[in-house]
Specification:
This protein has 59 residues and is of the alpha+beta class. It has one domain. Helix content is 24%, strand content 37%. It is built from 1 helix and 3 strands.
Length: 59
Amino acid sequence: MSTRWQYKVVDLPYRLFGDKLADRAQAELEKLGALGWELVSVVQSSPADTLRMFLKKES
């Protein structure tokens, strides 16, 4: 029997004011990790761009 996966893409937009992007990413990953999601990849084309996180978990 093969493993089946669910996938999730989470975008964290850059904000000039408020919490740092790294702090917001950490909080989001903590929350999703507690729900069983595993981070697979992260993409950010420039420092002032959206952070896109790709996650997966077994179905």
